[in-house]
Structure formats: structure tokens, C-alpha cells
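Researcher: Let's run the pair from yesterday's discussion. Sequence first, then C-alpha cells, for each.
Model: Starting with the first of the pair.
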Amino acid sequence: MQNETRFHHAQMVSPSAGFTARVMARLEERERARARQRAMIGAGLLVAAGIASFALVALWVAAWINALLASPSAILVTVQTISPLLGGLAEALWIAAAAILRAVNSVQMLAYALIVLALTAIWARVVTGPSKFALTLSVGGQRK
């Protein structure tokens, strides 16, 4: 009988109203804070890498400018050395283009042009993502 009395007096412990919602809200806030922290660290590393890259390029350009200013004749020698190479490259490209044009008939050239157009369109689609004007339907069947 005494056990029955103890059993009737024992109360069930339950969490207060809204406890689960408060715990879930805290967990979500913690995850958002962690995501913000990771984003800030990533952005900081990206900015630091950009500044370091810019500094390296600026130092390299400054070193070249300093070397050219110290020896102005180096500019003339460089231009005289490169100009025959550029002329030869232009001539080689012209000869190659003429050979290709003689070997390919107009139908083949049209097919190549269409292939290039298709590849350019595919590349543009991949780079820009889905079109803004694509028809998308919501659950209710209305346009977004």
C-alpha cells in the first residue's frame, strides 16, 4: 500500500512549453554563426592571396621597369630582336590559313562554322548559367 502511495505522488517531469523550439533555434543560430565564421575566414584568405599576388606582380613589373630605365638600349635591342619573329609568325599564319582555305570546300567550311557557333553557344550557356527568361513553374502552376 505504501508503494502505491509513492507511485501516485510521483510526478512526471516534462520540459517547459516551447523547449524544443528554443533548442532548435539555438542550434540553427550556432550553425549560422559557424557558417559566417567559415565564410569570413575564406574571404580573408582570398583577399590575402589577392594582395600577395598583386604585390608579387607589382614587384616584378617594377624590377623590369628599373632594368629598362637603367639600360635604355635594352628596349631597342628587344624590339629589333622580336620584330623579325613577329613578322615570321604572321607570315606563317597567313600561309597556314591559305592552305586550309584551298583544302576545304565551302560546305565543309560552313559545317566548321556551325560547329564553332554551337560550341560558343554551349560555352556561353555554361558560363552564364540558366537563362533568366526560362519558364519555371511553381507548385501552383504560376510563373515565378
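Model: Moving on to the second of the pair.
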Amino acid sequence: MLTGIIEGIPAHVRLSTDDLRQALARRRLGAGRGARMGFEQDQVRITGGVVQGETIGSPVSIEIANTEWPKWSTVMSADPIDPEVLAGQARGEALTRPRPGHADLAGMQKYDFGEARPILERASARETAIRVALGEVARQYLRQGLGISLLSHVVAIGGIEAAPTSPSFENLAAIDADPVRCFDPQASARMQELITTTTDGGDTLGGVVEVLIWGVPPGLGSHIAAARRLDARLAAGLISIPAIKGVEIGDGFELAPSLGSAAHDPMVFDGGRIRRTTNRAGGIEGGMSNGEVIRLRIAMKPIPTVPQALASVDISTGGPAPAHHQRSDICAVPAAGVVAEAMAALVIAEAAIEKFGGDTLGDVRAAVQGYRVRLDAAGMAGSW
């Protein structure tokens, strides 16, 4: 069972259980080729904060049940279970061979457990389901209140890279329909072949996902404190996704070898409005959104639960042993994109709530419009 709460969402944002089901379905479909976790079906329920399809201003609470839970209800029971009962269950076997790349060993060391089960179940990427559900609440607030839209797409799996492209929000359905959520059909076909080959070889794959966010007003986040910088908050949210090892904003690492004169975004007046001729900064400058499209990339390492089992040690014997092999996917990069959308939506929503406040959706829209009028009057609305 997963539960989550999101606070600050104003009253009258339209939201239904179907919205959450569709978001979770995108996460499952995003597993695409190489998925082995599809049997874990989500049963989502809104338990507070929504009445008759609209938020009411109180925290929105969500619960996600898993159809697999009955098989684990004894082993993972919150109440003590007779050791003889546990001994008769295969799922109750102590996991004393930690898996490299997972939280197993570090968690056992930190919390003083002799086996990894209490660690690996909570550290599982299964928890990203609730992130996606909460992210859908944030997405609806952003869309209805501020006109913000966002999507993700896979730009690389293994050593295969998609051709440079910049999809629009209208392409989201086509991206979701692709087995690996790649906007380049030729690259997608090659990625799918690589996943098949890797599956046959008993190995796993990582890759890179890009998140694009349109319609973000300038000034979300702040330069006045490190914890309020929008880029820092987005980076923290994205790197918190299991198996993500790198976050890039805008042109990111490509800017490092550049001269300063070629690394930034020149400004011009165009029709009485300030515009940037490029977007190397990825829509964020000085810790604040600047009105351009926000561009984020995340790098996902190959899933560490490798079918062929990596070398490890057995804590119970002190000798060498192959790591335990729990169920896992071969490539979770497409699904990670859906999770990244959710995390980006949650961060942007939090920053928007800070700036515009409002007890109702109407309050939010009025505050956003007032801000737009002020910027337009000064000729400073830019691309927003």
C-alpha cells in the first residue's frame, strides 16, 4: 500500500480518479520493451481533498493498493508473526546476499538489519507510483491555473541516441504510443532491438530522458536563498528518482568547454517584448524561471538487479556468493520519464503556489493575469 499527500492545491481544480488511473497507466506502459513488472496492478483511490470531481482547498490524499500485496501480507506484516508460520513461506527467506547497486548493504549497515528485506522493499522503485499520482494533481493545477504543460521523451537507451529533436506538447500521445517513448521512429526501432538482445543476454540497460515544460512564467524560484533556487529544487527532485545518476539543465555539460560569449542567451527587443535568441540556459537563470521553455535531462543507470546475478557476499556465512535476484525490468528508462514529469510538476507547482498563492483556482488565475499585465506594461513579459 502506498499513500501520499499534496498540500497547497487551491479549491476548484478539476480532478478525478480517472485522471490518476490514466497517469499510472502511462507509467506502466512506459515500461515498454523489457518490462517484467506489469503484473503489479495499481488500485488508486482519492481519500481526501476532493469532492464531486473538484479539489476543496484541503490537502489531497491518495492511496494506491497493489494486487500483489496479499502474497506478502504475512511476511511484511506490521504485527509479529509466529516464526514457525514465517518459516513455512518461501517469501520469508532471509535475504543475506546484498545486491550491488541497491540500497541493500548500506541500509543493513545503517539500520542494523541482518538481512535486506526491510530495506529493499521500501527502497524499491515501486514507490514512484505514488509520485506519479501526486504529480498528476500538480499537473492539473498547473494546466488549469497557469496554462503550463509538460512532457518527457527518451533520447537515449544504451549507446543508441535519438536524432536531435524538440517535440511539442501535441506530440505527447504519439510519444506515449511508442514502445520506448522515443520521438524518433528509427532510433526507437534500434532501441527495441537492443532491449531484446540485452534481455536474451541476461543484462540491463540505462539511458537518458528529456523533460520539456512550456508556459512557465518568469520568476518562479528565487536567487535570495540556496534552497529556493528553482534549478536546485528541480535537480533535487529528479535525482531522488531511483537509479537516476545525473541531471542536466539546458545545454548543461555541453556548456563547460564553451567560451562565455557562446554559452549564454542573447536578448533582443522583438515587437516591444524582450526575447532570447537561444535557450542554452534551459529556461532557468539565476535560480529563477525566465519564461523560456524549461529543458531538463536525466541520466538513468542500468537497473542493478541483473538477471545473471552480480558477485556479492553472504552476510550470514562471511563467504562469497552471487547476489539475490529479485524481480526486475530490463530497461526502465521510458517509465522513468513519466516519473520525471511528475517530479518536475510537483516542484514547479510548489514554486507557483509560493508566488501566486490563492485559495481558489479563480484566485490563482487572477494573480497570474495581474502579473502578466504588469510585465506586459513594462515590456518585460518576454516569451511567456
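Researcher: Give me one sentence on the second I can quote.
Model: The two ends are 41 Å apart (CA to CA).
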